[in-house]
Amino acid sequence: MLRRVLLLCVCAVLLAAVPATAGLFGDKFEDEVVTETSAVKLVREVQQGGYDVVTTEELKGWIDGGRKMIIVDTMPFEASYAKGHIPGAVPFEFPVPLMETWDTTKTAGKSPADYEALLGPDKDMLIVVYCGFVKCTRSHNGAIWAKKLGYTNVVRHPGGIFAWKGKGYPVETAE
Predict the structure, then answer these.
(1) Judging by beta carbons within 10 Å of its beta carbon (0-12, 13-18, 19+), is residue 19 exposed, middle or buried?
(2) Which of 42, 139, 145, 175 sits a CA distance of 20 to 30 A from 97?
(3) What spatial distance separates the first Cα and last Cα of the chain, rounded to whole Å?
(4) Sign of the CA dihedral 101, 102, 107, 113?
(5) Dist CA 133 CA 164 (whole Å)
(6) What is the DSSP annotation of 89-143?
(7) Taking the model in full, what pTM does it have?
(8) What pairing do the DSSP bridges indicate for beta strands 90-91 and 70-73?
(9) What are phi and psi of 53, to 5 degrees?
(10) What is residue 53's DSSP assignment?
(11) How many CB atoms within 10 Å of residue 38?
(12) DSSP readout, 59-89?
């Protein structure tokens, strides 16, 4: 029941993201199809992965409140992470297409053991995984693989770094 409520909340957030002026600059009905497609795709990924989701505001609250967690940025290091990431996030690249079996050519040469070492021995640790934006599925792969490795408290931040920056929250850069 809680999962359904959370999924409905995610859908509501996505629907709210459609600009109020969409009808003035485009076809509001066509815009709704795009929003629906994104919302349903996200819900199905979450259901498939067996993880949860967190909004940008919730994640910021967790960070500000000192909640213990590991935040994983799944974007390419040089192209994204180094230029700006959520404060405290650690890099671990995942591909955009679904990675059903581990492929080191798609994870910057890193193995499942490397990912597990990054996440640590506490399988109940809160793991937050994000990528660029809602349509990006790197975070889906990161969340699925955390679950496959036995982590029980995995959440995906679907808005990613774009939503984080969109809220005007600070970012860190890598030197």
Answers:
(1) exposed
(2) 175
(3) 44
(4) positive
(5) 9
(6) -EE----SS--SS--GGGTTT--HHHHHHHH-S-TTSEEEEE-SSTT--HHHHHH
(7) 0.83
(8) parallel
(9) -125, 160
(10) E
(11) 18
(12) HHHHHHTT---EEEE-S-TTTTGGG-B-TT-
- pLDDT tens column, 14-24: 555 555 444 45
* DSSP, res 144: H
154: which DSSP letter?
Answer: E
**Over the stretch 31-83, which tens digit does the pLDDT of each residue have?**
999 999 999 999 999 999 999 999 999 999 999 999 999 999 999 999 999 99
Euclidean distance between CA atoms 155 and 95, whole angstroms? 18
Instruction: Specify the amino acid at residue 149.
Output: L
Contact of 74 with 106, CB cutoff 8 Å? no
Spatial distance between the Cα atoms of 3 and 79, rounded to a whole number of angstroms: 34
What burial class does residue 143 get, using C-beta atoms within 10 Å of its C-beta: 0-12 exposed, 13-18 middle, 19+ buried? buried
Q: CA dihedral defined by 156, 109, 101, 128, rounded to 10 degrees?
A: -10
Which residues neighbour 103 within 8 Å (Cβ) at sequence distance 6 or greater?
95
Place of tokens 């990528």: 131
Separation between Cα atoms, residue 53 and residue 41, nearest integer Å: 14
